[in-house]
Amino acid sequence: MPAENLTNEIKRHSTWSIFIGIVTAALGIFLIVYPLAAAAITTVLLGWVLIFVGLAQFVFALHSQLIGNFLWKALCGLLYGVCGVALAFFPIASATALTAVLGTLLLIQAGLQTAPAFQWRPLDVWEWLLADAAASLLLGILVLVRWPSSSVWAIGMLLGVSVLMSGMSRIMVATKIRRWARSVERVVQEAAWV
Known about the structure:
The structure is a single chain. This protein has helices spanning 2-33, 39-62, 67-89, 95-119, 126-145, 151-193. With 194 residues, the chain is an all-alpha fold. The two termini are 15 Å apart.
């Protein structure tokens, strides 16, 4: 049956999305907990974490069905990656400048996440995507308003909250899609019995 194949494909993609969400949320928690270490080690480690988050975002983008979804997910991954490279390979550079880059990244991410949230508005998952965008916007504003005094602690703490929120919203959206696929599958099975 074509409906069974479609629901199986949706469940397979949502499982992958849940996995990426869990990895992203775990990395966010790690970033929130880690700022107690030395600033230089934090900068290098945070850079590598952002590189991996960027790679995870890009891998997630490769699973997108629409070119628009691919582009905004890939762009978010690229922004995480670029910031990660700057942090990992230039640790001597001023933490002040890196904090300004982080605040800007969060503002850009918020802008890129807002449009898809409203595109998903007919579904009941759009609030999670909008909450993710709002969290990025508020964190970006907080970093830039408190700059330069927020230079060392803000990088790990605020970016960790943003990454955690991204992971949680991805898990919630994928879980809702998975439930929807199961309900469609049940309807198809019940229709087959009739």
